[in-house]
Amino acid sequence: MRRPRGSASDGGVRQGNGGSTGPALGPALVRLVSGSGSIVLGGLSLAVLAGSGAVAVLLLQRQSPRGLMLIGGVALIAGAGLTLLAVTFGSVPGFFIGTVITGIGFGGGFQGAIRSVMPLAAPHQRAGMLSVVYVISYLAMGLPAVIAGFLLVHEGDLLATAVQYGAAVMVLAALALLGVARPARLAEAVPAARQARVAEAVPAARQTGVAEGASAVRSAAGGGAGGWPRTAQPGPGQPGRPR
User: Could you list the mean pLDDT of each consecutive 10-residue stretch along the chain, which spans 243 residues?
Assistant: First the structure.
């Protein structure tokens, strides 16, 4: 259980970082891109991020946990990259499209992380495990926001901070993808090895069964394990006994 928990927790941390981009820098980036100080636009970026994540959870609920985490990682990389391009070139539609894709990655990845670990826990452990997952995820969302605010205050360059933040999200999402893909390769190798061992063992078991069956038949017929039963010889005083 340690390996799946570690993989899912890593995925939740790295994809939680992507979900913290909007709350941390979203309103300021909207103001930078659009040139408007409207509070509605700033709040709209957060609503788009959360709403797209919720819709992604509903639409992708039939996907496997691994599929959800793969989709989430790819969407985070694409969304963060598109958002950075939109901020760099001042495109408001591109910014919101990138936010939608980032929200899909955040929602899908977080749901995949939870669904990966919860079935592995015993019923009396699920509450504690879910608490750990949420604590890790909220730390992954909160700490990067604090770091981004610190860099923004001391550097004073919102665009540079956004680029650094987005690059870190893309790197962490790529690491999450590698962490999800590695157990899958191991999981494919283990059944193949088991099938090979079974394929080797079945003929031997069949031959052993045939040999044991033949021995049992010979024993039941009175010949013992050494061979088939010998022809009975007449005893003393019986007809056919040579004198």
Answer: 46 50 74 85 88 92 88 90 90 92 89 86 88 85 80 80 84 83 53 54 52 52 48 51 48
The structural domains of the chain, with segments of one domain joined by +, span 2-186
Sign (positive or negative) of CA dihedral 178, 180, 182, 184: negative
CATH code of 2-186, in short, is 1.20.1250.20
Mutual angle of helices 2-19 and 21-34, in 10-degree steps: 20
Q: Which residue type is seen at 47?
A: A
Which three-class secondary structure string do you get for the chain?
A: CHHHHHHHHHHHHHHHHHHCHHHHHHHHHHHHHHCCCCHHHHHHHHHHHHHHHHHHHHHCCCCCHHHHHHHHHHHHHHHHHHHHHHHHHCCHHHHHHHHHHHHHHHHHHHHHHHHHHHHHCCHHHHHHHHHHHHHHHHHHHHHHHHHHHHHHHHHCCHHHHHHHHHHHHHHHHHHHHHHHHHHHHHHHHHHHHHHHHHHHHHHHHHHHHHHHHHHHHHHHHCCCCCCCCCCCCCCCCCCCCCC
Q: How long a stretch of residues is the chain? A: 243
pTM: 0.65
| Residue 76 CB partners (closer than 8 Å, separation 6+) | 15, 18, 102, 105, 106, 109, 169, 170, 173
